[in-house]
């Protein structure tokens, strides 16, 4: 198969979807890899690195879209790319469709096979392709929140861990998954008083066992969120419903009872955000203030630490990309139920129920497409 690795064009997105070592692995499996010029620059990989690994470096994204059967992205395709995507082309990316109806409808019109990293499931549950970026984002959320707590950045002027004789900051984390756990460990490690909320009692038991004494796991409820939000210096939103829009847990009305200069970091912004007052921001302009509360809502937080996040991302995604390239997406999904859950669109039809519900659109089971030509070889172009 011909695989295309694109340069990310989303603002301040410095990650790349495949490393030179990934190119080498693809070549060993007999595939051809096209890499757009300067695709790896932000992650400290040169065009010469890719060429040495066996890739063909091309000048334009248009050439890659025209030739490749499998397109590798990090973030979702941007509007200028919609017209380049071909029917039947496989596109792998963090799509987060449920937060963006324009993106959803634009990708439906392409007729591509859209496989979303964030809904691929693991053999034992979980989201193995989202987890690495969740770890990065959780750690970064505390790092950024601590920065914007400083008075010079518009915050309350509070040190996260306090000092002798002075109380530390209070950190409220909504969601005890990978993002929330990573954030809690960093915040607690810096000396803050941490509360982490979740609705899964088994998860709370696990957190109670692994968290330090200055981190308190609690059952989440509307009343608990209202009470703790009023006490918090930092609130981190880390809730996720795979494939669906994030629930709104902090309402605008709650802001009036919160401390002025409180910093809210909405890591769920990729899925629409879990604060009612959230809207997407970029690394160029990461924060804004609403009713005296600082909001940090950057949609691609790991893009600012690309050397770390690219390696973490590609360690997880390469085996899936190889599986798809080797057997075609249909056979790969027949062999891997978790990968099948990552298929969000096929031939202009939504195949993810949670996504379809987000916009009131019809959904067709992906199995309908897998049953077609079940015994035939993959129709995707292969290298010779």
What do you see in this structure?
- Strand 4 (70-75), helix 4 and strand 5 (90-94) form a beta-alpha-beta unit.
- The protein is globular and about 65 Å long.
- Helix content is 36%, strand content 17%.
- It folds into two domains: 2-127 and 305-371, NAD(P)-binding Rossmann-like Domain (Rossmann fold, 3-Layer(aba) Sandwich); 134-304, NAD(P)-binding Rossmann-like Domain (Rossmann fold), CATH 3.40.50.
- The strands form two sheets. It has an eight-stranded mixed beta sheet with strand order 3-2-1-4-5-6-14-15, with helices on both faces. Strands 9-8-7-10-11-13-12 form a seven-stranded mixed beta sheet, with helices on both faces.
- By secondary structure, it is α/β, with parallel strands linked by helices.
- The chain contains 15 helices and 15 strands.
Question: Keywords, please?
Answer:
384 residues; alpha/beta; Rossmann fold; 2 domains; 8-stranded mixed beta sheet; disordered C terminus
Return the domain count. Answer: 2
CA(first)-CA(last) distance: 9 Å
Q: How does the overall form come out from the CA principal axes?
A: globular
CATH topological fold name of the largest domain: Rossmann fold
Which sheet architecture does the biggest sheet show?
8 strands, mixed
- Going across the major beta sheet, what is the strand order? 3-2-1-4-5-6-14-15
> What is the class of the largest domain in the CATH system?
Alpha Beta
What is this structure, in a nutshell?
The protein is an alpha/beta fold and 384 residues long. Helix content is 36%, strand content 17%. It has 15 helices and 15 strands.
């Amino acid at each position: 198969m011909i695989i295309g690795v694109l340069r990310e064009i989303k603002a301040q997105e410095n990650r790349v979807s495949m490393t030179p070592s990934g190119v080498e692995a693809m070549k060993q499996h007999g595939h051809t890899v096209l890499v757009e010029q300067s695709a790896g620059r932000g992650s400290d990989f040169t065009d010469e690195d890719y060429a040495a690994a066996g890739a063909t470096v091309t000048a334009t994204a248009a050439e890659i879209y025209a030739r490749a059967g499998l397109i590798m992205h990090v973030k979702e395709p941007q509007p200028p790319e919609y017209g380049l995507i071909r029917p039947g082309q496989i596109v792998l990316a963090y799509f987060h469709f449920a937060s963006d109806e324009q993106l959803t409808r634009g990708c439906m019109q392409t007729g591509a096979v859209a496989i979303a990293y964030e809904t691929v499931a693991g053999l034992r549950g979980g989201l193995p392709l989202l987890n690495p970026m969740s770890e990065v984002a959780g750690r970064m959320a505390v790092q950024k929140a601590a920065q914007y707590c400083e008075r010079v950045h518009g915050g309350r002027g509070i040190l996260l861990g306090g000092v002798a004789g002075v109380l530390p900051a209070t950190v409220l984390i909504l969601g005890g998954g990978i993002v929330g756990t990573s954030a809690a460990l960093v915040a607690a490690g810096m000396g803050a008083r941490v509360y982490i909320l979740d609705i899964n009692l088994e998860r709370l038991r696990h957190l109670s066992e692994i968290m330090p004494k200055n981190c308190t796991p609690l059952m989440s409820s509307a009343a608990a969120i209202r009470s703790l939000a009023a006490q918090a210096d930092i609130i981190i939103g880390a809730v996720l419903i795979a494939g669906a829009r994030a629930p709104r847990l902090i309402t605008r009305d709650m802001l009036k009872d919160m401390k002025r200069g409180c910093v809210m970091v909405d890591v769920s912004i990729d899925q629409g955000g879990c604060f009612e007052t959230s809207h997407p921001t970029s690394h160029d302009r990461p924060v804004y203030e609403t009713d005296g509360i600082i909001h940090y809502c950057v949609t691609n937080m790991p893009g600012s630490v690309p050397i770390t996040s690219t390696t973490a991302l590609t360690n997880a995604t390469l085996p899936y990309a190889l599986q798809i390239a080797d057997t075609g997406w249909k056979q790969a999904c027949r062999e891997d139920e978790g990968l099948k859950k990552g298929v969000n669109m096929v031939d202009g039809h939504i195949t993810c129920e949670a996504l379809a519900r987000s916009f009131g659109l019809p959904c067709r089971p992906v199995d309908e497409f897998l049953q077609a030509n079940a015994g035939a070889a993959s129709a995707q172009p292969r290298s010779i």
